[in-house]
């Protein structure tokens, strides 16, 4: 069961195409595992659509969402032929077009002796999204962030303070947040992460919707 979700403002920004590719991909991946957020996004898109239909359409940057949807169209919802069962069982459909090799064959980069990172080949390189792999029982040092950090658990789990995170759980940490995730002892943890992200790109429709919904 998923216990940690993106907040409504983030879902709204996703629904209106106001997020970078990296952040939009993270939300899309969470929503593909979370019926609750998927429903909320559908509702927000419907409200946004009717707002747009009732007014002169504003220029809004939907390029990022379009890119992801196009990739999904290209690939369909089936895993790419080159991805073996191991990856396709773990990676939700939105991620699969970005990972064309089995997970164990990806060129993982070891970072600081703590974790391994595979940077996803995004079209928009301004904000990076990566897969992170941490061994069972890893204690990360207590740390804060220079920017916002998003983490979505794909397999395994970790504990952060009193909160437990498992597959599908999402966390968004701010510059002010200090934390110390500890990977569960019973297996490695694979996450999708976006670090130091400027969260929002264009907010024209977003701001209008927020005012409308009082978010
Ligand atoms: Zn959710």
TrEMBL record:
InterPro entries: Anti-sigma_ChrR, Anti_sigma_zinc_sf, ChrR-like_cupin_dom, RmlC-like_jellyroll, RmlC_Cupin_sf. Residues 105-190 form the ChrR-like cupin domain. It comes from the Bacteria. It holds the Pfam family Cupin_7. NCBIfam families: anti_sig_ChrR. This is Cupin domain-containing protein. It comes from Defluviicoccus vanus.
